[in-house]
Every structure is written in C-alpha cells, then in structure tokens.
Design brief:
- The structure holds 2 protein chains of 2 kinds.
- By secondary structure, chain A is α+β, with helices and mostly antiparallel strands.
- Chain A contains 4 helices and 5 strands; from the N terminus they run H-E-H-E-E-H-E-E-H.
- Chain A folds into 2 domains: 1-30; 48-149, Alpha-Beta Plaits, CATH 3.30.70.
- Chain A has helices at 7-27, 61-65, 110-114, 140-145, and strands at residues 48-51, 71-80, 90-101, 120-123, 137-138.
- Chain B is an all-alpha fold.
- Chain B contains 14 helices and no strands.
- Chain B has helices spanning 3-6, 12-46, 62-72, 83-101, 118-125, 128-139, 143-174, 179-188, 201-204, 206-219, 231-234, 244-269, 284-310, 316-344.
- The mean pLDDT of chain B is 83.
- Chains A and B meet through helix 1 of A and helix 2, helix 13 and helix 14 of B.
Chain lengths: 169, 345
C-alpha cells in the first residue's frame, strides 16, 4: 500500500456515490416504502409453514428434527375399521395437537424437508406479527389455513427425471 | 455602516442575552440542516434508498423524533466510571463548538466578537474538543473508550497542524488574522486587476482549501478518518458508554462542529457572507449575510459529507502517514509559495 492512495480511484468512488444520488432523485430508490407499498415475495419464499392436516401421521419427525424445539405434537392411536370384512382393525394415528411457536421458529425449513408424508409446506406469507408473543403459537387450525396461500411448485429444469411434487389442496 | 445596530442602545446584559440566543441558533440551525439534508437524505440517496419519510413531510421532523427518543433514554453511567469527568465530557466538547461559532461574522455588523486574533482564537478553541474526547475516553473506565479516546487524541493532534497551516496561506494573503477583515479582503480583492467577483481565496489558495477539507474531515472523526469510533473494532470508541442525553450532546456536537468547520471554510475560502456584485459595506448584507453564509455552509458540507459517505476507513498508520508525510509538507510548501508570491506581487 503506497503512502498516498491512488487519486483516480478516489475520484471514481466519488463518481459512484454521486451517480447513485442523482439516479435515486430522478428515477427513485431501489427500496419500497413497506407498509404502503408491498413487494410480492418470491414464490418459494420462506414466510410461514403450512400444515396439510390429512397427510400428517403424528410421526414426530419434524418435532424431533426441529433445532428450536418449536413444534408441539400430541396424538393418539385408534383402531380403524378393517378394509375388508373379516379383516383385522387397522391401527392409525390421530393428530390431537400440532402447534408451531413462531416466536421460537428460525425458519430453517428442516421440518418441511424432513416430513415424509408431504404434510408441511412453505408459504410466502410473512405478515403474521402479533402484539402478544403468545399469539405467535399457531395451532393446527391456523396452520391449516396457511395451506390456501401455498403456491404450486415451480417446474424443475428441463431434462430433470424427478417428478414434480403436487401441493395437496 | 453602523446605522442599523446603533439605532437601538442596549444594556450589556441585553446584548449578552441576544448573543447567547443568536449563538444557540447559529450552532443548532446549521447542525439540524446538515443532519436532515445530508445524514438522513443524501446518505440514503447515495445508497439508493429514501431515508426517513414518515415523520413530517419527507421525514423533515425525524430529527425532533430522534431528540425525543434520546431524551427518554436512561442516562447510564458505568459503576467504575469517573463520574464527574464522565458527566462533564460532552459539555466540554460542546463548549468548544460554541466558542468556535463566536469568531464567525455573518454580515458587516453581524458578529459575536470582532477581535484581531480571530483566526488564532478559532483554531485554538477548536482544540478544546480534544480534551473533552480524552475525558470521555478516560472517564468511561472502558477499554474501548480508552482506545477510542487515545486514537482520537492522536488523530486530532495530527490533523490540527495541517488545519492551521492551510489557513496560514489565507492569513498571509489577506494580511490579517481578523476574520471580518479576511472576508472584506476577499470581497475587495482583485484577480490580476479584475475585481468583478472579488477574490475568493479558494481560487488562489485551492491547495489550502483542499488540505483544510481533508483536515476538517479528520477533526470531525468521521469516515474515512473514523478510527476513533470504528464500530467494527472498538464498538463506538469514546462514545461506547454514553447513552441518552449525553450521547445526544456528542451527536449534536459532531454535526454542529461539522457545520461550523464548513462555515470556517466558507469564510476563509469562499468569501463568507459576501456575494459578488454588491457593495460589501451595504446594510443589505446584515439582512442576507446569514442566509448567504448558510448557503455556503451547505455547499461546503456537501463536499465534507460526500467524502464521508463514499470512502472506507483508513488504517491507523495510514491515517497518521497521510497527515505527517503528505498534508503537512504540502501545507508548508503552500505557505512558502504564498509568502513568496505575496512579496513578489
């Protein structure tokens, strides 16, 4: 590093800030004034996690993998009637409680990735702040409501062999 | 020339009261203007955002909101701090700023004190802020504050020299240390016999002007010379332990000093309250002088803040090198050349 920094670089730097200044005044800023103007989040943005209740088997994988332990699941087993007459009654899991505490959630998405039954989905909705922190605990009903806001998956790139997952409605 | 002022006779205490209020206005109006115009708006625009937009039209009342916020905050004092020194430090810095404004004339009859050693006084009282900053650094009983305070002291001492030496060129050319007469020398000056715009010293003393601006930048401890408050390494330097009202005082002091150094630059190099084409003795300047000066302050501080918002931080050794190896020799050469030319012409 020379004792005196390069003058041309210094002047180029001044030019950059001045050009940005003029562009912001004449053409507007890159930012938007949020509560008045809203930008649509990208389709796969991580806004809130939605639950498709019918697909959940209360297997607890999401609750166990959650780094924040912010998913609370309670379920019970019950005997469903046999498929064919004369068969044994089938054992099924019923979901009693499925809560996500968004005050703890860090939106890592591990629960969505780990779910083997396609019961959890990302929704780009992000405006669910609450005056009371306790209200950030979304219960089963609230999480199911978010399903309406889940967009369809985007197409995989051309030539991909994998089957595109469907969002259950 | 004195018709306006001598029309009313005022007792000494009345004059003092008026001057105190005027000094308060002269410090706070430029400071508020600079904070809104440059810190809130220009910096945002240079980063392609709009800055505060909600408080008042285009966020113009944001500063009041900020002041209200700081006043509500708790005034924390660290347990190990030297309480008296800690509490007094922001006021010492502010006193330096308020004393600095005294030498600035805003019109032929608009001045606080009109002394023959005006330049000397200005540069002397501007050094008081070093003591305040050292007090803040030492009194906080925090290693970050101490490091910041010492860095600030080293930097302010180093850059005080080019600041003084840059102004010496102006003093030599004007032949006086009286600030008012420096303004008049620029107003009545001629460039090779052509006196249409007077002789603003920025033309003949451009090197001095450039050195002055760089030194001012360092005196204000703002980027690219913000080693003393480098937030990524020493939190906020000597400001680390301050909160609430006392932090606000430092904050106001910083921008008020920016405004006043800009005013000094405008007075020494851009002709102060004078605009070309008018008689410098006319009473009109008592009216428009402050506005002219404020306009020039805004122009000069545009440069100061433009540099601030563009450049990254100097390393401590580079910072000292720039002062001792580049600016001071340049300023000395400027004095020699100015002196020789003054004698020759």
């Amino acid at each position: 590093m020379p004792a005196f920094p390069g003058l041309p670089g210094l002047i180029t730097g001044l030019g950059v800030t001045l050009r940005t200044l003029v562009r912001t005044i004449t053409k507007g800023a890159h930012t938007v004034q949020y509560p008045r103007v809203k930008e649509a989040p990208t389709t796969r943005a991580r806004g809130v996690i939605a639950l498709h209740e019918e697909n959940c088997t209360a297997c607890m994988l999401c609750a166990r993998e959650c780094p924040d332990w912010c998913i609370y699941i309670e379920g019970h087993k019950y005997k469903a009637p046999p498929r064919r007459p004369g068969g044994k009654p089938r054992q099924k899991n019923a979901l009693d409680r499925f809560d996500i505490d968004y005050a703890l959630c860090m939106y890592c998405g591990i629960c969505v990735d780990v779910c083997p039954f396609e019961a959890l989905f990302w929704s780009p909705e992000f405006e669910f702040s609450e005056p009371k922190i306790a209200d950030l605990l979304h219960d089963k009903a609230r999480l199911s409501q978010w399903m309406e806001t889940v967009p369809e998956f985007e197409d995989y790139e051309a030539g991909s062999e994998a089957k595109k997952p469907e969002v259950p409605r | 020339m004195n018709t306006v002022v001598t029309a009313v006779e005022l007792a000494y205490w009345q004059q003092t009261a008026i001057r105190s209020v005027a000094a308060l206005v002269a410090v706070l109006i430029p400071a508020g203007t600079l904070v809104y115009l440059y810190l809130f708006k220009m910096m945002s625009f240079m980063q392609s955002r709009l800055g505060p937009m909600e408080a008042g039209p285009y966020g113009s009342l944001q500063l009041l909101a900020e002041v209200g916020k700081f006043l509500q905050k708790e005034d924390l004092i660290p347990r190990a701090a030297d309480r008296v020194v800690f509490k007094a430090a922001p006021f010492v810095v502010l006193v330096s700023t308020f004393l600095l404004v005294l030498v600035l004339p805003a019109g032929p009859d608009l001045w606080f004190i009109n002394v023959d050693t005006g330049v000397f006084l200005a540069l002397a009282v501007s050094s008081i802020s070093v003591i305040g900053i050292l007090m803040a650094g030492w009194g906080s009983a925090s290693k970050y504050s101490l490091l910041g305070g010492l860095r600030a002291a080293g930097q302010l001492v180093a850059y005080e020299l080019p600041l003084v030496l840059a102004v010496m060129g102006v003093v030599i050319q004007a032949g006086t240390l009286n600030v008012q007469e420096i303004v008049l020398a620029q107003a009545n000056g001629e460039i090779f016999g052509w006196g249409a715009i007077g002789n603003p010293f920025v033309i003949t003393q451009f090197l001095g002007f450039a050195i002055f601006l760089v030194a001012v930048q360092a005196e204000l401890t703002q980027p690219p010379f913000d080693m003393p408050v480098a937030e990524s390494e020493i939190v906020a330097g000597y400001l680390t332990e301050y909160s609430g009202m006392r932090f606000l005082l430092f904050f106001i002091g910083e921008f008020a000093t920016a405004g006043i150094f800009a005013a000094l630059a405008a007075t020494f190099f851009l002709g102060g309250w004078y605009v070309p084409g008018l008689d410098p003795a006319s009473d009109l300047f008592n009216l428009i002088g402050p506005l002219v000066l404020l306009t020039k302050i805004v122009l000069v501080s545009f440069l100061i803040f433009w540099f601030r918002f563009t450049y990254p931080r100097f390393r401590e050794d580079q910072l000292q090198q720039l002062a001792w190896k580049v600016l001071i020799p340049l300023a000395l050469a400027n004095i020699v050349v100015t002196g020789v030319l003054k004698v020759v012409f």
